[in-house]
Amino acid sequence: MEAAQRGNQAALARLYEHYFPRVYRYASARLANNEDAEDVTEEIFLRVIDNIDGFSFRGFPFGAWVFRIARNEVVSHVRRQKTRSTTAPLHDSIADQTRDHVTELELKLDIALVREATGRLPEAQRQVVELRFGAGLSVAETAQVLKKSENNVKVLQHKAIARLQSWVRSQ
After folding, report:
1. Residue 143: is it exposed, middle or buried by C-beta count within 10 angstroms (0-12/13-18/19+)?
2. Residues 1-85, CATH architecture
3. What is the CATH number of domain 100-171?
4. pLDDT single digits (tens) 43-75
């Protein structure tokens, strides 16, 4: 991280390679389509690179700082999207004969059900679920990103999972 702050391109590349999969999973779990997740992930890393000089260890690790940027950028994107009208991308309307459409449809329905249920959670529970399972953060990392205690994150996660299970079973 310190080498990246000094402008070492190889160090920046290693940070990108290390954090990209988790940041993308987080953005993808929160956003409706893969193109948006890719665009937002790119914006997140641009913000990380632009602001890396200002990072200093203040009791939380670099990864928590990255995910705080990620969370803020995803929230900003969602707010911007609410003001725009949405249309289905052209490629979604074109049939792909090589895929098993039944399996693909079942997966899309399952994902939509989980997204819808997660969206109904209280904000704090939803953020914990997105960071823990969407981004793959640990309890400690999630606590640092959300500025909550680890015990609070565990309680929020437990309550969220119980609610999600209840809602999904009732569907």
Report:
1. buried
2. Orthogonal Bundle (1.10)
3. 1.10.10.10
4. 998 898 888 888 777 777 888 888 889 989 988
Q: Tell me the one-letter amino acid at 118.
A: T
Tokens at residue 96, please? 């792909």
pTM for this prediction: 0.56
Say which DSSP state 147 is in.
T
pLDDT digits (tens, 9 = 90+) for 72-123: 998 888 888 776 545 445 444 444 555 566 776 666 666 677 777 788 889 8
Residue range(s) in the chain whose domain bears CATH number 1.10.10.10: 100-171
- Residue 137, Cβ density class (10 Å: 0-12 exposed, 13-18 middle, ≥19 buried): buried
Intervals of CATH 1.10.1740.10 along the chain: 1-85
